[in-house]
Design brief:
The complex is a heterodimer of chains A (about 240) and B (about 325). Chain A has about 240 residues and is α/β, with parallel strands linked by helices. Chain A has one domain: 3-Layer(aba) Sandwich (Rossmann fold), CATH 3.40.50. Chain A is built from 10 helices and 10 strands. The relative contact order of chain A is 0.19. Chain B has one domain. In chain B, α2 runs antiparallel to α9 and α10 crosses α11. The longest helix of chain B is centred in the first third of the chain and has 27 residues. The chains are: A alpha/beta (about 240), B mainly alpha (about 325). The interface between A and B is medium-sized, with 32 and 25 residues. The structure holds adenosine-5'-triphosphate and magnesium ion.
Chain lengths: ~240, ~325
């Protein structure tokens, strides 16, 4: 469904990605793991059109979307939840969800998707008219995911959904990610520091190091790989 | 929708006020009348700049430039056609002059906005600042609009009624634009441009819309001003005038329409109250502004949450 071929990205004179290739099959969960600065966020940003690609290409649904503007890529059903849960601080929870459905016209569908968002994240329902900027970090992360779902994506890219969130809440957010994948058939590309947890819900994984793919394999195999265990799974 | 009702209420109150005002105008003291009209014009300027600087989170320093474009266009138009039109059609001519002024200002806004709104933050401030100065220099050298000596004998068509009505329309237009589903995009873009574009919003289009709409109403305000003072000179539209409007928006609490309206009124009245201090007037005025800014950097009337300070992590 999503295919990246020899992607190269630079920030000024600093090369961040040295020709990364990866595949995300339809209805699967694929994880990118790797140390700080490996280029995980950069990969997602270049797929979703937030930064310009120097070389290589991105194909989605068989179509070339390399260097298309971000708002056009969302319109094709590929939605990115950027790192650091960027909710609209001065809009309420409800208004944030409506912003997620910005490109949709089907009122009934929007209403039922808001209901769905509230069933997976009931906390949001209790805070429906609270300004998003006053939500706790975990609640903002739930809102960021729920808001992305409102665009009715077929493929969702999540950048560190567990960042700064209490372990018990992380577990429940990951359970919801699995539920979204199963119930809605959403394809998910996940970037996660908590590699163990991420691989436990994924089908396939890539290990990035300084802008290149170091290892790729099924999630199962990666969890058993001694090299991966030593470097990313805490032995 | 509650907020849309709010906008409509503003409009009704404004229009009612305008009708009452035009009924009683002949009995008003000319001095107070002049100040009331100044208030109305400044409300239009501040509310329209608020759409750009407050709601959409940009920083424009060129509002006086757009006001000048609208003012000169409207004034020149009236001067050319005044003699050809019978008295009964004068109000129509006035409306046409104001509209034309607004449209030309909007066009100028488009010209400045499209290339510069792709840039971030301070660049826009510099570009708009430059634009305002260019307009002033151009007018200063244009014989057809009086050059440095100014454009004189503009017909006195601006009344309190017109001013209040147009102020109400400005508030209504801006409020209903921002409070619509489409309009929440303005707030989204100012809160977080990256997140907004990953929701399918085109930030550049929003910024251009805000910029052009703001310039349009600044142009209208310029037209009202021209037909109020009956005289335009390039020095009236300098950089300081833009700063005055920016201060109204900041004191009003960036993005709070009601706050900005009140700030516009207070800052119009303040220099008048300070008249008794004669030469020291502008010094006291500046000190008061600095004091207010330091005491309440978030604006005089802001209570609710604003991202800028709280969550800039
Ligand atoms: N805006 C930027 N300007 C310059 N360099 C950048 C920029 N963003 C990222 N980089 C650099 O690109 C490299 C890859 O960064 P990226 O954010 O993709 O890492 P990451 O794998 O997501 O790391 P983390 O796990 O810490 O989030 C890093 O060396 C980083 O310093
Ligand atoms: Mg990252």
């Amino acid at each position: 469904m999503l295919e990246i071929d020899h992607l190269e990205v630079s920030y000024g004179s600093i090369r961040a990605l040295h020709g990364i290739s990866l595949k995300v099959p339809e209805k699967s969960i694929v994880t990118l793991i790797g140390g700080n600065g490996a280029g995980k966020s950069t990969t997602l940003r270049s797929i979703s059109g937030l930064i310009k690609v120097r070389a290589g290409n991105v194909r989605y649904d068989g179509q070339d979307i390399t260097n298309k503007p971000a708002h056009e890529i969302v319109a094709r059903g590929l939605c990115h939840v950027p790192e650091g849960r960027m909710v609209f601080a001065n809009l309420t929870v409800m208004e944030n969800l409506h912003m997620g459905a910005y490109l949709r016209k089907d009122r009934a569908g929007i209403a039922s998707d808001i209901e769905y968002a509230f069933t997976i994240f009931p906390r949001l329902k209790e805070r429906i008219s609270q300004l998003a900027g006053t939500l706790s970090g975990g609640e903002q992360q739930m809102l960021a995911i729920a808001r992305a779902l409102m665009s009715k994506p077929r493929c969702l890219m999540l950048d560190e959904p567990s960042l700064g969130i209490a372990p018990i809440l992380v577990r429940s957010i990951f359970d919801q990610i699995v539920a979204i994948n199963k119930e809605r058939g959403l394809t998910i590309l996940l970037v996660e520091q908590n590699a163990n947890l991420a691989l436990s819900i994924s089908h396939y994984g890539y290990v990035l190091e300084t802008g290149s793919v170091l290892i790729e394999d099924t999630a199962e195999a990666l969890r058993k790989d001694p090299q991966v265990r030593a470097a990313y799974l805490g032995g | 929708m509650k907020s849309a009702d709010g906008a409509k209420r503003w409009l009704l109150v404004g229009i009612a006020l305008a009708v009452v005002a035009s009924y009683f105008t002949p009995q008003f003291n000319r001095y107070y009348l002049g100040i009331a009209i100044d208030c109305g014009i400044n409300i239009i300027l501040a509310v329209s700049l608020n759409l750009i600087n407050g709601h959409t989170g940009q920083f424009s320093l060129g509002h006086a430039g757009f006001m000048a474009v609208g003012g000169y266009t409207a004034a020149k138009f009236s001067l050319v056609f005044e003699a050809m039109v019978p008295d009964s059609l004068k109000p129509l001519l006035f409306v046409a002059a104001l509209t034309l002024g607004g449209l030309i200002a909007a066009l100028a806004g488009l010209g400045v906005g499209v290339p510069s709104l792709r840039l971030k933050g301070d660049y826009l401030a510099i570009v708009t600042l430059g634009f305002g100065e260019i307009i002033r220099v151009v007018v200063q050298n244009m014989e057809s609009v009086g050059a440095a000596s100014g454009l004189k004998n503009i017909p006195k068509w601006t009344t309190l009624g017109w001013t209040f009505a147009l102020a109400a329309i400005t508030i209504y237009a801006v409020a209903s634009l921002v409070n619509s589903t489409y309009g929440r995009g303005f707030i989204a873009v100012s809160d977080d441009e990256v997140a907004a574009s990953s929701m399918g919003i085109n930030p550049v289009r929003y910024k251009v819309t805000a910029f052009v709409t703001g310039a349009f109403f600044a142009g209208i305000a310029g037209g009202l001003y021209a037909h109020h003072k009956q005289f335009l000179s390039p020095t009236g539209f300098d950089f300081l005038k833009s700063i005055d409007i920016v201060v109204m928006v900041i004191l009003g609490g960036m993005g709070r329409t009601a706050g900005v309206v009140i700030a516009a009124i207070i800052l119009t009245l303040l220099p008048e109250f300070l008249r008794q201090f004669a030469d020291y007037r502008m010094i006291i005025y500046s000190l008061l502004i600095i004091g207010l800014m330091m005491a309440r950097p978030q604006g005089l009337f802001t209570l609710s949450f604003k991202k800028k300070g709280a969550a800039s992590v």
